[in-house]
Design brief:
The chain has 161 residues and is an alpha/beta fold. The chain contains six helices and six strands.
Length: 161
Amino acid sequence: MRLFIVVALLLLSCNNQKSGEIMVDATASEIVQKVASFEGEKPVLVNFWATWCIPCVEEFPYIMELKEKYDDEFELIFVSGDFTDAKEEAKQFLKTQEVDFTTYYKIGNDNEFITTISDTWSGALPYTVIYGKDGTVSAEWEGKQEFDVFEEELLRAINEG
């Protein structure tokens, strides 16, 4: 019985993530929990994107450059809003961008997902939120931004507290 409980707990802790999987399904609540898991440790940059969104694709390399430059100082979470039939295309895009960490694929009702993530988000993509070390929103915006904006806002969050 103990072995069963230990195995069950281990399986639950995996949270449907297979080893080495580049993209796993996630609800808005799971994304919120993931962000909260870094509270008190480091800032978190969350970017909501899709392959059909030209501005998303254009700014993606900026975010990856920040990941390379400041990797140990913040956590990066990508959440794909691609349609189900484009999920494989999204995974391929991540590979071309040399993403080597787990990212997330939005599941669930769109409106519920959006309002769970933020009261101010209209649902437009790209959407970026930077959470400070204390877990509060340090910066957020809809639409494409230039590298300098990403870097300035991220450094502000890194240097707070």
